[in-house]
Design a protein that fits this description.
This protein is mostly beta strands. The protein has one domain: Porin, CATH 2.40.160. It is 9% helix and 54% strand. The chain has three helices and 14 strands. Strands 1-2-3-4-5-6-7-8-9-10-11-12-13-14 form a 14-stranded antiparallel beta barrel. It starts with a helix and ends in a 13-residue tail after the last strand.
């Protein structure tokens, strides 16, 4: 038993690392805390969860995100994102991502565009450059794309959908990158509560069911929790806002591999006369 348990943990960890392959990152520490049910986000975290949400940004936003997966130095994630709306033209964004460590790492550069087609409906797309580096074997590069939409069906119900690598890009060695599709609903019964659910299907894995709740007990302060099923994890976190700066902290727990803490810092400019939004987005 003492022999097989370390082997099982190592195999599970390796499967987690290999499952990245440029696939969309968690929607910031906010998304991680809500079980990554983040397809309907309309803040800077949408740069990773569903780019169409960027169309609802009122002004330029910038974000930093880091996650220490399973409290090891071998599966760290670092993301940087920025987006800026240009009137009726739409919102343009860029994101940079790094996953891994010295002996195995992945980099991702994403160029995004999002546009509102009406007051309640937006579409988004992103072009991705991916690079995987293993010093012993060399480096492999590839390109792929993402598409999504966000529909605010009413003040209380929002629908979002996103597709990653629907073109089924393959690495130079012939291995295909995963295609991932997700659809999510957000229910906002008040300006203090957001309940999000999401179904995600990685073409190579079982359906992942996600759910998250965000509650604002006080002005500019958020409490979050959530879970997802494939693999099963529970999560939670907190968020605070002050003068355009948002700090989110989150953690999720895998029953075998342990805890993964995350931290996000975002800054949003605001057009003259427009006050920052404090309600869940």
């Amino acid at each position: 038993m003492r022999f097989f348990l370390p082997l099982f943990i190592a195999a599970s960890f390796w499967a987690e690392a290999k499952s990245q392959n440029g696939s969309p990152s968690t929607g910031g520490a906010r998304g991680l805390a809500m079980g990554n049910a983040s397809a309907t986000f309309t803040d800077i975290n949408a740069a990773f969860s569903n780019q169409s949400g960027l169309a609802f940004l009122p002004a330029a936003n910038f974000g930093l995100y880091t996650e220490q997966r399973f409290l090891t130095g071998a599966a760290n994630t670092y993301n940087v994102s920025a987006a800026n709306p240009f009137g009726n033209i739409g919102t343009f964004g860029i994101s940079l991502g790094y996953f891994g460590y010295q002996e195995y790492n992945e980099q991702k550069i994403g160029l995004a565009y999002a546009r509102q087609l009406s007051a309640n409906f937006a579409i988004g797309a992103q072009f991705d450059y991916l690079s995987t580096r293993i010093p012993t074997y060399g480096q492999a590069n590839s390109f792929t794309a993402e598409l999504g939409f966000l529909y605010k069906m009413s003040k209380t119900v929002h629908l979002g959908a996103h597709a990653y690598n629907f073109v089924r890009t393959a690495l130079p060695n012939g291995d295909k990158l995963p295609a991932i599709y997700k659809i999510g609903l957000a229910y906002l019964p008040s300006d203090k509560v957001q309940i999000s659910t999401e179904l995600e299907k990685n073409i190579d894995n079982p359906i992942n069911i996600k759910m998250g709740i965000e509650y604002r007990p006080a002005d500019k302060f958020f409490v979050r929790t959530g879970f997802n099923t494939a693999p099963f994890r529970i999560s939670g976190g907190l968020g605070v806002q002050h003068q355009g700066i948002t700090i989110d902290a989150g953690v999720n727990y895998h029953q075998v591999l342990g805890f993964s803490p995350a931290l996000s810092v975002a800054y949003g400019l605001h057009p003259k006369g427009l006050k920052p939004e404090n309600k869940p987005q």
